[in-house]
Structure formats: C-alpha cells, structure tokens
Amino acid sequence: MSLRLPASVLLLAAFLFSGCKDRQITTYQAPKDPAPAALPPATAGNSAALPEGHPPVGQASGTDMAATAVPTGSDSLTWTAPTHWTAKPLGQMRKGSFAVKGADGTEADLSITAFPGNTGGMLANLNRWRGQISLPPLAETQLDSVLEHLDGDGFHFDLADFAGTANGAPTRILGAVLSRPGETWFFKLMGPDALVAAQKDAFRAFLRTVKEPAP
Amino acid sequence: MIPLVRQFRDFFVSLKLTVVLLALSIILIFWATLSQVQLGIWGVQQKFFHAFFVLGTIPGTSIPVPVFPGGYFIGGLLLINLVAAHVYRFKLEWRKAGIQLTHTGLIVLLLGELISGLLQVESQMRLEEGGTSHYSESYRLNELVLIDTTDPKFDEVVAIPEAVLGDRGVIQHPKLPFQLKIRDYYPNAAVQMRDQVPNAAPALATTGLGPRVAVIPLPLTYREDERNSPAAHIELVAPEGSLGIWLVSSLVGMPQKIDYQGRSWVIALRGKRYYHPFAITLHDFSHDVYPGTEIPKNFSSRIQLKTDDGHDDREVLIYMNNPLRHAGLTFYQASFERGDKVSILQVVRNPGWLLPYFACVMMGLGLVIQFGIHLVGFVRKRTA
Questions:
Q1: Residue B154 with chain A: CB contacts under 8 Å
Q2: What is the pTM of this model?
Q3: Which of A84, A187, A14 is nearest to B198 (CA)?
C-alpha cells in the first residue's frame, strides 16, 4: 500500500492554504472620535515645538502595559571625565552630558549617545555633524582623509574634527564614533571654535578612559 | 472500492499516522519551548502552533521556506485521523461506551482549539473615568487609516492592515482620491523630537509632524510586556502630483490633517480597531488593597453598557474573574493606568469558548463509565 500520493496531496493543500493571510483593506463608517483636534497642517519653517496639549512624542506614560521603553543602546560603558568638565543632567537620549567651560565664559557641550544598529552609516553621521556647522557634505571617497583613529581601552574610535560656523559664530565639532556589536556610540563636543580646539587633547584622553564596567 | 479512495482511507485510519504525528508534535513542542527564550509566548504560538508550517528563511535571503509541520498541520491531521479511525472501526457496543465518549471528548477539544486559534479575536478597550468608547483596539495588529472627516455626523474610514505596508508598494483604493506610496516602513521604531536626537538621519517626511520628528528603527521585540511600534513614510500622490510625504507612527497620538479637493482627511497609524454596536462608559475604577499594605486585593470597573438600538442600558460591575459577557464578547478587567483613573478591559471574541468545558465533561464522564464498567465486572467476578 503506497501512502505517498495522499501524503503529498495533503502537504500541497496545507501549504497553499498557509499562504492566505489577513491583508484585506476595509472601509467602514465610524462614530466621530471625541479625541483632541487633529494636528494642523505644518507651517513653513516647522518649529520644533509641538502644538499645545500634545503629549510628548515617544514618551510612555502611566503604568500602561503597552508602553515600550525606547532602547537607546546599552548602558554598559563607563568613563572618567576631566575635573574641569561639569556633569549636566542627562536628556532623554543622552548617556552622558558635560559642560566644558572656557576661561572667557564660553561654554561647549559634550554629549554621549548610543543607538541600536549603525544609524545610517559613518558618512551620513559625519555629514549630519557637518550640516550643523554649515559645512558641505563629504563624499564617500573623502571619508578616509578626514577620519583619525584612536585606540582606547579595548575600543577603536573614529575621530572627526570639523570647524565651521553656527549662528554666525565660528564653531567646532570634535566627534568620536564607536561601533560596538549591534549599536553605535557617539561622543560629540561642540562649541566655540577656540574652546573646542583647546580641549582636543583632553577629549582624546577622555576617550581613552571609556571602558566596559568591571563585572 | 476505487483503489485511490482506498489509498486515502488507509492513510487516514492508520495507526502509523497517529504515531508519526505524535512523534512530530513532541519535536515541535520541544523546539517551540526552546525558542520561547528568543520569541516569547506570543511569538512562539504564532510561529509554531498557529501555523501550518514552521517557516525558516534561505540563508542570506528573506525568502520563506517551510522547514517543519506546524501546529495546525499536525493537530488537523490528528483530528482527521481520530475521526476517520472512529468512523471506520466504530461498533455500537455498551462495553465500549466509555471509550467512545472519551474519544469524542478529545475530538471536541481538538476542534475547540482549532476554532479558538482561527476565530479568536483579542483587543483592549481603554476607558478614562467618565469617558465612553465604541471600539476596542488590537494590542498586536496595527492599521494605517485614512479617515474622511468631512461629514459632521460620522467618519468614513479606509483601514489598511500593517501587513500591506510591508510590501512598500503603491496602494490605490476606490474610496481614496489619491494613491498611497509607501516610501519606507519600519516594523518597530522609536520617534523622538528631532532636537533631542543629535545624530538623527535626515527627515524623509516633508509635511505634517514628520519633519520635526526623528525615526529611530529598532529591532522587533517579542517580549510579553512590550509592544512593537511600527512607523512608515507615506507619500500621497494625486493626479496633479505629490501632496507630500507624511510620517505615521503608532507612537504619534495625534492624527495629522490633510485638506484635499474641499474634503478633510486624517492620516494615522494605530492599533487595529474593532467597532461595536454598543457603547461602554466607565463610571468608576477602583483598586482595592489589603488594609495597611500595597498588595492588590481587587480591581474593578463600574461601567454603563448601552446598545445603539436602545434595547439594553444597564450598569455592570466588572472585576477579577467576573467578566462581562455581551454580544459574543467577553470583557475582562486587564489593567489600569494613571493613578487609577484609566481602566483597560481585555475584549475577547471566542466563538468556541464553551467547547473545552464540554470536552472535559465528556472525557471525564467517559473515563468514569469505562472504569465503572470494569469495576462492576471485577466485583461481580469476585462475588461469584
């Protein structure tokens, strides 16, 4: 007795059936939502502020089971900042935040952030920094010529040093990108050109203190 | 009998098939249990049990290939096997009444699981104290909606399941005066105000909230207590040209407005909604604790149920293990939010919810009868 034929017919039928999924576009009439007014069409200039009464975007509230924490990479790095850098409160996305003050009262901002994945790649990230200080974007081929490399405590950093202008003032960005498995860390010092340039050695020394926390 | 029909009959009634299927199901359950570490309970159910085949992908591509029979396949065949063997070998004898009843109970149990798996729909209704809702929202499924809000009395909704967005194609629908071009789709993504994300990628969206917000793609989560928040960039293309690119995300609470040809539209990505022919108003949510402790004793929602046709208008108290059953739906107290001012009800539609109870009674009764017959026979033999 051969069972091959019934078995193969059955397999085929089941396989075809398994292809069906709920992908139907539906239309219906629904009672009006008593929800808040819709967002007005965007105005020119697009201010960063949300309309009045809008809950903060991306923030979960309450004990809602459905709330998802926004992962911003792991918390698994530590560092030691120079004593003349002042720690600032962490923003929503920051892993570390410091104010670097100059003798003349000027101030630069050091931010440490981490995101899952490669966040668009090295070129896109560097060009975003360049955009912030009114510099033209780089081409892929120019990447090697602007990157410096620094080996820290088991980590390799790609360093960039860009000088441009922001709001008409000479501004410099010292940035370091650290690629780790599954996430990318950014260390960025941005502020008045002279101040940031003077902090370059301190910044490099700071990067060398970045390490995995002791187990 | 035609040889082909006999071949099929012999296949379905064979005990060999039963043994093979039971062996396969042991492997399936073992594999699924191990996978639960990565996928979580819900993910495992979808991938291994609520599927005809466990799908894998060809290495290096995203082309799905079946690698193992899934729960529906094995369970379905077991069901057919059991029924076929019953019909084929059935003999009406009192001596076997217990066994027959037990097996019928098993068939009902398998059928009940199949019906639940195929037809059960779960959603949640979120109610603020004093608030009223006509709909519940899915916890897992999402939909892109385009709502024509021009009519002051009702909204005209076109709902596109999230699965369609994954194709990244062009959607044309007779109810829409424009085409939807899916420019980008992220199954899970965080959104943040752009000024808070120093390294955000440039905005693809050109209008609405999109240019002010940065999208950060995230890996899919399978955890029980987390939810994937999809996002997409949708371009609306009218006959005269593009109307702009909108960013939609299930994390953006406020719908975005589009005015086109004298009609007002709203675009949003939200949990799939199920509208009901009745409204529920939350009068009061209470969260009782044991005196002097923070240990919860009871959660309850006092609600008003009012049907659209006016037949029913009553107050109901929903609390733990005491759900409301109405119109084929069951409302359970599931969760709460915001300092006990918001109650979340789990809404379950399961046409087969009674079958497991019947099945258990039948199997229990069948075993009692079968052992009873043996016991009586044994006692008689001893006394004789």
A1: 29-32
A2: 0.59
A3: A187
Q: Which position has the token pair 């109405």?
A: B326
Pairs across A and B, CB distance < 8 A: 197
Q: What gap in Å lies between CA A174 and CA B17, rounded to an integer?
A: 69
Instruction: Spell out the domains of chain A, with CATH numbers in brackets.
Output: 62-207 (3.40.1000.10)
Residue found under tokens 């995230």: B218
DSSP 8-class letter at A70: -
| Extended strands (E) in A68-106 | 85-87, 94-101
Q: What span, in angstroms and rounded, lies between the C-alpha atoms of B115 and B3?
A: 34
- B161-to-B141, B230, B273 alpha-carbon distances in Å: 8, 12, 11
Residue pair B287/B340 in contact (Cβ under 8 Å)? The answer is yes
The pLDDT score that the predictor gives to residue A5 is 66
8 A C-beta contact, residue B103 and residue B376? no
CB B68, CB B89: distance < 8 Å? no
Provide the percentage of residues in chain B whose pLDDT is more than 90: 35
Q: Closest partner residue to B199 among A23, A92, A128, by Cβ?
A: A128
Nearest CB to A57; choose among B135, B218, B252: B252
For residue A52, the distance in angstroms to the closest alpha carbon of chain B comes to: 11
Contact A30/B252, CB-based, under 8 Å? no
Structure tokens at A105: 């009262």
Q: Which of the four pLDDT bands, split at 50, 70 and 90, describes residue B100?
A: confident
Predicted confidence (pLDDT) per residue in A95-134, tens digit: 888 888 887 888 899 988 888 777 777 888 888 888 888 8
* Size of chain B in residues: 384
> Three-class SS string for A146-163?
HCEEEECCCCEEEEEEEE
Give the largest Cα separation in chain A, rounded: 96
Mean pLDDT of B225-231: 82
The pLDDT assigned to B159 comes to 93
Closest among B203, B227, B225 to B216, alpha carbons compared: B203
Q: What angle do CA A52, A53, A55 make, to 5 degrees?
A: 120
DSSP label of B46: I
Residue A82, phi then psi, degrees to nearest 5: -60, 150
Alpha-carbon distances, residue A66 vs B60, B127, B180, B240 (angstroms) = 33, 15, 29, 41
Angle at B281 between CA B280 and CA B284, to 5 degrees: 130
State the smallest CA–CA distance between residue A85 and chain B in angstroms. 20
Structural domain boundaries in chain B:
2-120+354-383, 122-133+275-349, 143-272
CB within 8 Å: A39 and B342: no
The angle formed by the CA atoms of residues B302, B304 and B306, to the nearest 5 degrees, is: 160
Comparing alpha-carbon positions, the chain B residue that sits nearest to A61 is B338
Chain B interface includes A115 (CB < 8 A): yes
Calculate what percentage of chain B has a pLDDT beyond 70.
97
Strands B231-238 and B313-319: unpaired
CA proximity to A138, closest of A149, A123, A151, A153: A123
The reply to whether residue A70 touches residue B158, judged by beta carbons under 8 angstroms, is no
Q: Answer yes or no: do B155 and A31 touch at CB < 8 A.
A: yes
